[in-house]
Each structure stands twice: as C-alpha cells, then as structure tokens.
Give the backbone structure.
Amino acid sequence: MTGRATLRAPGRRRPSYPDDTELQQLLRERVDRHFEQTGRSRRDLREWYCKTAAILLVFVSSYTALVFFASAWWQWLPLAIVLAFSVCGIGCSIMHDAGHGAVSRHRSVNRLMAHTLDLVGCSSYLWRWKHGVLHHHYANITGHDTDIAAGPLARFTPHQRRYAHQRWQHWYIWVLYSLLLIKWNFLDDFRALIRGRIGPHRIPRPRGTDLAWLAIGKIVFFAVAFAIPLWRHPFAAVAATYALVAVVVGLTLSTVFQLAHCVEDAEFPLVSDGARTVDSPWALHQLRTTVNFSRDNRLVTWLTGGLNHQIEHHLFPELSHCHYPDVAVIVRDTCAERGIRYREHASFWAGICSHARWLRRMGQVT
C-alpha cells in the first residue's frame, strides 16, 4: 500500500504522521492476500481500458455532432449535456486513476492517460500537487489541505474563520460549485504557474516536458472549446455551449468530491502551526476524515469512477478504481474487527443532505 505519495512540496513546514503503522500494515497484508487468492492484476485491467474507450468515444462523438451537425436547440441541449458528462467521465474515471499511477504498471501509460486532463483545459501537473500531495497527505487538515480552503467564500471546517454571509452558504454554495471548471480553466492554473504556489504552499513550477504538456493542453483546449466552434457558429452560441458544459461539469465534480470529506461524519483534526506530527497514524487519519456513499451501488461506482469509495481510494490510491468494491469489504471487516468506525452514507442523496447540513452548521457556528 503506497498511501503517501512520493512527491514532497517544498517550503512551508508540514507535519508528519506517527510511526504507528500497525493498521496500515494489516490492511496491506489483507489486500495483498486478496490479490494472491484471486489472481487479479492490480492495474492494466481490460475492463478499465474498455470503459476508457467508451468514455472517449462518447466525448469525441458528442463534440463532433454538437459542432458539425447540431442545428436546433433540441439537438444542441442534449448533446451539450452528454458532452459534459463525458468530460466528468474523463476526470473521474480516466485522469484520476492515471494521476495516481493506478492505470498501468508502465509509467508512460499512466502519464499519457493523466494528460487527458490537460486536453480538457486543466493542468495534470498542477493537479498532481494539489490533489496527490496536499489533499491526500493532509485530508481535512485546515491550513494544509487546499481542497477545503475557499477563503471568505465558504467555511468548510470549524477551524476556519467565519464570515457573516456564510450563514447562507448552504444555499449559494451550489452556484460556486458550478463555476469550478470555469475558474480552473481561466484562473487557477495560470495563478499557480505565475506565483509558484497553490494556496500557501510553494510548489516547483513545471519545466521541460511538464511545461510543454501544460502549454499544449491549454492551446488544444482553447482551440476545441472556442476556435473550432467559432468557425461554424456565432459567438453567443459557442459561449452558451461552453457555459452549459462547464456548469454541469463543475457542479457534478464538486458535489461528488465534497461528499467524501465535507460532511457531518467526517472529522477535521486540528494541527497547530509548527506542529511536527498529526495526532493519528496515517491510515487511521484517512478513516476518520473520509466518508463513502452508495458503496453497494455498482452503477454509481461506475459513473463516479469509484469516487463513492473514497475510503478505499485514500488508503490504496495506487489501485484501479475497478477494485474498490472488493477492497471495501476487506477494509470494512477490518474496521469492525478493530473497533474502528467505517463511515459511509447509504445513498448519494444522503450524502448531499449531510453535506448541506454541515455547511449550514459551519455557517452558523463561530
């Protein structure tokens, strides 16, 4: 189990975890035994490649039909929505696995698949730092996990400053979520590249091949999203299409990711500035700060790329998401045996309700 990424962000001092790895080793041994007994490969799965081919086919087909054949609103609307969900599929099922090295034992395959994020307008290099390092290492730790840092716009943890307008955040947050992709496409990557920072954390700016992929990705994105459509359609139609696709993608991805950590059952450990260690060992920290939803729903698992199994993903990020349902049984049984709470919501809707209640509480409590 390679729970902690090998990348290390320079600059700001970040705490380490206690040396107690008993639970981590036990989980690793049991998962290793599962693969030995079943004979299944951890990566390079035929089902993953078939799923990826299907998602990319839908993406190319819906884009082609939208740009070159759609001539009426009743054709445009469903095609734009299908395109949006294919982009979600690229993010959840293709890029996410690849960014964690969970697609193939060959690094070049992982890197190639991770670059699908670049082609939809977002840097896979910067995402690896923000998600693979700062989020996975320090899930739900205020001041270190940048995924829970929204400044005055929203309060996600009890350790963040509260602003008066946040009393309504459980209502307006969905509008902010819908703007995620637009902000990512036009602001976040460029700001991180110029500042050499993600939030308060210094990161190394991309160089060589990484910088080339970032630049090529941005060029391809702007060409696909705007230049090519403008060749055949008026600006208003192109802008409306981009806005619709971006809103659907932003709202979907934000909601799916937030249900794993910003809900009532998740914990938000306080690590004071300058502290050298986190209170809990690494594996136990992941179990306390992460919540699953719809674990037994295979359709939800397929659609979300296994992101409804965030506990298993945080414990075993190097495994293909196709394995999460089986690994979840091992993790849940081990937690029950050791008296550790396995946190989950029975359904997607239950997770949304819990997220909304948590936002409401954080907006009211000082």
The first helix runs from residue 22 to 38. The chain has one domain: 43-364.
